[in-house]
Protein backbone atom coordinates (compact mmCIF):
# COMPACT_ATOMS: atom_id res chain seq x y z
CA UNK A 1 0.00 0.00 0.00
CA UNK A 2 1.35 3.44 -0.92
CA UNK A 3 1.98 5.76 1.99
CA UNK A 4 0.01 9.01 1.97
CA UNK A 5 2.06 12.18 1.74
CA UNK A 6 2.11 14.58 4.68
CA UNK A 7 2.08 18.36 4.31
CA UNK A 8 3.18 20.86 6.93
CA UNK A 9 1.26 24.16 7.01
CA UNK A 10 2.43 27.03 9.18
CA UNK A 11 1.63 30.62 10.07
CA UNK A 12 4.24 33.10 11.27
CA UNK A 13 3.97 36.77 12.17
CA UNK A 14 7.54 37.81 11.31
CA UNK A 15 7.21 41.33 12.77
CA UNK A 16 9.27 42.87 9.94
CA UNK A 17 10.52 40.60 7.17
CA UNK A 18 13.43 42.87 6.33
CA UNK A 19 14.83 42.85 9.84
CA UNK A 20 14.05 39.20 10.53
CA UNK A 21 14.73 37.55 7.20
CA UNK A 22 17.64 35.54 8.70
CA UNK A 23 15.26 34.14 11.34
CA UNK A 24 12.73 33.23 8.65
CA UNK A 25 15.29 31.56 6.40
CA UNK A 26 16.80 29.59 9.29
CA UNK A 27 13.36 28.33 10.29
CA UNK A 28 12.46 27.39 6.70
CA UNK A 29 15.69 25.44 6.34
CA UNK A 30 15.28 23.56 9.62
CA UNK A 31 11.53 22.85 9.64
CA UNK A 32 10.81 22.79 5.88
CA UNK A 33 7.11 23.66 5.96
CA UNK A 34 5.25 23.12 2.69
CA UNK A 35 2.87 26.09 3.06
CA UNK A 36 3.49 29.28 5.04
CA UNK A 37 1.34 32.31 5.78
CA UNK A 38 3.34 35.36 6.87
CA UNK A 39 2.01 38.48 8.57
CA UNK A 40 3.29 41.91 9.50
CA UNK A 41 5.77 42.12 6.63
CA UNK A 42 6.27 45.86 7.22
CA UNK A 43 7.53 46.33 3.69
CA UNK A 44 6.23 47.55 0.34
CA UNK A 45 5.83 45.10 -2.53
CA UNK A 46 9.03 46.23 -4.26
CA UNK A 47 11.27 45.32 -1.33
CA UNK A 48 9.75 41.93 -0.52
CA UNK A 49 12.65 39.39 -0.51
CA UNK A 50 11.28 37.15 -3.24
CA UNK A 51 14.72 36.22 -4.61
CA UNK A 52 16.02 35.09 -1.22
CA UNK A 53 12.93 32.98 -0.63
CA UNK A 54 13.16 31.47 -4.11
CA UNK A 55 16.78 30.53 -3.41
CA UNK A 56 15.50 28.78 -0.27
CA UNK A 57 13.05 26.76 -2.37
CA UNK A 58 9.87 28.78 -1.89
CA UNK A 59 7.59 30.46 -4.39
CA UNK A 60 5.69 33.42 -2.97
CA UNK A 61 2.87 35.88 -3.43
CA UNK A 62 2.59 38.95 -1.22
CA UNK A 63 0.59 42.07 -0.46
CA UNK A 64 2.85 44.61 1.19
CA UNK A 65 2.27 47.94 2.86
CA UNK A 66 4.63 50.69 3.94
CA UNK A 67 5.58 50.61 7.64
CA UNK A 68 2.80 48.29 8.84
CA UNK A 69 0.72 45.22 8.01
CA UNK A 70 1.51 43.12 4.93
CA UNK A 71 0.77 39.44 4.29
CA UNK A 72 2.33 36.74 2.13
CA UNK A 73 1.92 33.09 1.22
CA UNK A 74 4.86 30.77 0.54
CA UNK A 75 4.86 27.37 -1.16
CA UNK A 76 7.72 24.90 -1.00
CA UNK A 77 8.85 23.85 -4.48
CA UNK A 78 5.78 25.53 -6.00
CA UNK A 79 4.18 28.88 -6.69
CA UNK A 80 0.89 29.82 -4.98
CA UNK A 81 -1.98 30.37 -7.40
CA UNK A 82 -3.56 33.56 -6.13
CA UNK A 83 -7.34 33.71 -5.93
CA UNK A 84 -7.96 36.79 -3.78
CA UNK A 85 -6.07 39.82 -2.50
CA UNK A 86 -7.83 41.76 0.22
CA UNK A 87 -10.85 40.78 2.28
CA UNK A 88 -14.14 41.54 0.47
CA UNK A 89 -16.86 43.68 1.98
CA UNK A 90 -15.32 47.15 2.19
CA UNK A 91 -13.82 48.68 -0.97
CA UNK A 92 -12.47 51.59 1.10
CA UNK A 93 -10.23 49.32 3.19
CA UNK A 94 -6.63 49.81 2.05
CA UNK A 95 -4.89 47.82 4.78
CA UNK A 96 -2.94 44.77 3.59
CA UNK A 97 -4.37 42.02 5.78
CA UNK A 98 -5.69 39.17 3.63
CA UNK A 99 -4.40 37.01 0.78
CA UNK A 100 -5.76 33.73 -0.59
CA UNK A 101 -4.38 31.12 -2.96
CA UNK A 102 -4.43 27.47 -4.00
CA UNK A 103 -1.30 25.66 -2.75
CA UNK A 104 -0.65 21.93 -2.96
CA UNK A 105 -4.37 21.21 -3.45
CA UNK A 106 -5.49 23.35 -0.50
CA UNK A 107 -7.30 26.71 -0.47
CA UNK A 108 -5.10 28.77 1.86
CA UNK A 109 -6.28 32.06 3.34
CA UNK A 110 -3.55 34.01 5.12
CA UNK A 111 -4.79 36.80 7.38
CA UNK A 112 -3.65 39.44 9.82
CA UNK A 113 -6.68 40.42 11.85
CA UNK A 114 -6.60 43.95 13.33
CA UNK A 115 -5.32 44.36 16.87
CA UNK A 116 -8.10 46.73 17.91
CA UNK A 117 -6.29 48.68 20.61
CA UNK A 118 -6.93 51.13 22.08
CA UNK A 119 -10.53 50.49 22.94
CA UNK A 120 -13.06 51.89 22.82
CA UNK A 121 -12.39 53.81 19.65
CA UNK A 122 -12.11 53.57 15.85
CA UNK A 123 -9.43 50.86 15.92
CA UNK A 124 -11.64 48.57 17.98
CA UNK A 125 -14.62 49.34 15.73
CA UNK A 126 -12.49 48.48 12.70
CA UNK A 127 -11.49 45.17 14.30
CA UNK A 128 -15.10 44.15 14.89
CA UNK A 129 -16.15 45.22 11.38
CA UNK A 130 -13.23 43.28 9.88
CA UNK A 131 -14.26 40.19 11.81
CA UNK A 132 -17.79 40.47 10.44
CA UNK A 133 -16.39 40.64 6.91
CA UNK A 134 -14.21 37.59 7.63
CA UNK A 135 -17.20 35.65 8.93
CA UNK A 136 -19.16 36.44 5.76
CA UNK A 137 -16.32 35.41 3.45
CA UNK A 138 -15.44 32.32 5.47
CA UNK A 139 -18.94 30.96 4.80
CA UNK A 140 -17.96 30.65 1.13
CA UNK A 141 -14.96 28.45 2.05
CA UNK A 142 -16.05 26.24 4.93
CA UNK A 143 -18.33 23.96 2.90
CA UNK A 144 -16.04 23.60 -0.09
CA UNK A 145 -15.60 19.95 -1.13
CA UNK A 146 -11.84 20.42 -1.12
CA UNK A 147 -9.56 21.35 1.80
CA UNK A 148 -9.39 24.95 3.04
CA UNK A 149 -7.57 26.66 5.90
CA UNK A 150 -7.79 30.09 7.49
CA UNK A 151 -4.47 30.79 9.17
CA UNK A 152 -2.67 33.76 10.57
CA UNK A 153 -2.42 36.17 13.44
CA UNK A 154 -6.05 36.52 14.53
CA UNK A 155 -5.31 38.85 17.46
CA UNK A 156 -7.94 36.89 19.40
CA UNK A 157 -7.42 35.15 22.75
CA UNK A 158 -10.26 32.61 22.48
CA UNK A 159 -10.47 31.54 26.16
CA UNK A 160 -8.77 32.24 29.46
CA UNK A 161 -6.62 29.13 29.05
CA UNK A 162 -5.01 30.91 26.09
CA UNK A 163 -3.41 33.69 28.18
CA UNK A 164 -0.92 33.48 31.04
CA UNK A 165 -2.79 36.03 33.19
CA UNK A 166 -6.39 36.74 32.12
CA UNK A 167 -6.85 39.49 34.70
CA UNK A 168 -3.86 41.42 33.40
CA UNK A 169 -5.34 41.39 29.89
CA UNK A 170 -8.99 41.99 30.79
CA UNK A 171 -9.10 45.49 29.27
CA UNK A 172 -7.25 44.53 26.07
CA UNK A 173 -9.06 44.33 22.72
CA UNK A 174 -7.83 40.77 22.14
CA UNK A 175 -9.93 39.34 24.97
CA UNK A 176 -13.15 41.38 24.82
CA UNK A 177 -16.49 39.53 24.91
CA UNK A 178 -17.49 40.90 21.49
CA UNK A 179 -14.23 39.65 19.97
CA UNK A 180 -14.53 36.21 21.52
CA UNK A 181 -18.17 35.96 20.44
CA UNK A 182 -17.26 36.79 16.85
CA UNK A 183 -14.52 34.15 16.87
CA UNK A 184 -16.98 31.61 18.24
CA UNK A 185 -19.43 32.44 15.45
CA UNK A 186 -16.65 31.81 12.96
CA UNK A 187 -15.88 28.42 14.49
CA UNK A 188 -19.59 27.59 14.56
CA UNK A 189 -19.64 27.61 10.77
CA UNK A 190 -17.73 24.33 10.97
CA UNK A 191 -14.11 25.43 11.27
CA UNK A 192 -11.84 23.32 13.49
CA UNK A 193 -9.31 25.05 15.76
CA UNK A 194 -6.42 22.73 14.88
CA UNK A 195 -4.05 23.55 17.72
CA UNK A 196 -6.75 23.10 20.35
CA UNK A 197 -8.06 19.93 18.69
CA UNK A 198 -4.62 18.34 19.00
CA UNK A 199 -3.53 19.76 22.37
CA UNK A 200 -6.86 19.52 24.19
CA UNK A 201 -6.78 21.65 27.34
CA UNK A 202 -2.99 21.83 27.42
CA UNK A 203 -1.60 25.33 27.93
CA UNK A 204 0.10 26.36 24.70
CA UNK A 205 1.12 29.82 23.49
CA UNK A 206 2.14 31.35 20.16
CA UNK A 207 3.08 34.91 21.22
CA UNK A 208 5.23 36.30 24.01
CA UNK A 209 5.78 40.05 24.34
CA UNK A 210 9.18 41.61 24.96
CA UNK A 211 8.35 42.52 28.58
CA UNK A 212 10.29 41.06 31.53
CA UNK A 213 11.57 37.97 29.72
CA UNK A 214 8.07 36.69 29.09
CA UNK A 215 9.31 34.35 26.36
CA UNK A 216 11.90 32.74 28.59
CA UNK A 217 9.34 32.43 31.42
CA UNK A 218 6.64 31.13 29.02
CA UNK A 219 4.18 33.91 29.90
CA UNK A 220 2.38 34.10 26.58
CA UNK A 221 -0.81 34.22 24.56
CA UNK A 222 -2.36 31.96 21.94
CA UNK A 223 -3.43 34.33 19.17
CA UNK A 224 -2.08 32.62 16.03
CA UNK A 225 -4.60 30.11 14.76
CA UNK A 226 -5.11 27.56 11.99
CA UNK A 227 -8.79 26.90 11.30
CA UNK A 228 -9.61 23.93 9.09
CA UNK A 229 -12.77 23.27 7.11
CA UNK A 230 -14.25 19.76 7.50
CA UNK A 231 -12.59 18.51 4.30
CA UNK A 232 -9.17 19.34 5.76
CA UNK A 233 -9.88 18.69 9.45
CA UNK A 234 -10.49 15.00 8.78
CA UNK A 235 -6.89 14.78 7.53
CA UNK A 236 -5.31 16.55 10.53
CA UNK A 237 -2.38 14.61 11.97
CA UNK A 238 -0.51 16.90 14.36
CA UNK A 239 -0.07 20.53 15.45
CA UNK A 240 2.43 22.54 17.44
CA UNK A 241 4.48 25.69 17.93
CA UNK A 242 8.14 26.17 17.01
CA UNK A 243 8.94 28.11 20.16
CA UNK A 244 12.67 27.86 19.55
CA UNK A 245 12.32 30.59 16.92
CA UNK A 246 10.94 33.03 19.51
CA UNK A 247 13.90 32.32 21.82
CA UNK A 248 16.49 33.47 19.27
CA UNK A 249 18.20 36.86 19.73
CA UNK A 250 16.18 39.78 18.32
CA UNK A 251 13.36 37.45 17.29
CA UNK A 252 9.77 38.24 16.39
CA UNK A 253 7.41 38.23 19.36
CA UNK A 254 5.49 35.39 17.65
CA UNK A 255 6.59 31.81 17.02
CA UNK A 256 5.66 29.80 13.91
CA UNK A 257 2.52 27.76 14.56
CA UNK A 258 1.97 24.67 12.42
CA UNK A 259 -0.05 21.62 11.55
CA UNK A 260 0.61 18.47 9.58
CA UNK A 261 -2.11 17.01 7.39
CA UNK A 262 -2.51 14.15 5.02
CA UNK A 263 -2.14 15.62 1.55
CA UNK A 264 -5.13 15.78 -0.80
CA UNK A 265 -5.27 13.08 -3.45
CA UNK A 266 -3.06 13.86 -6.41
CA UNK A 267 -0.62 16.08 -4.51
UniProtKB/TrEMBL annotation:
A GO term for molecular function: double-stranded DNA 3'-5' DNA exonuclease activity
This protein's record includes keyword Hydrolase: yes
Signal peptide as annotated in the record: none
Cofactor(s) needed by this chain: Mg(2+)
Database matches in Pfam families: Exo_endo_phos
Residue span, Endonuclease/exonuclease/phosphatase domain: 10-254
Enzyme Commission number(s) from the entry: 3.1.11.2
Record's keyword terms, sorted: Hydrolase, Magnesium, Metal-binding
Keyword Hydrolase: yes
Sequence similarity: Belongs to the DNA repair enzymes AP/ExoA family.
NCBIfam families: exoDNase_III, xth
Name of the protein in question: Exodeoxyribonuclease III
Species this chain originates from: Novilysobacter erysipheiresistens
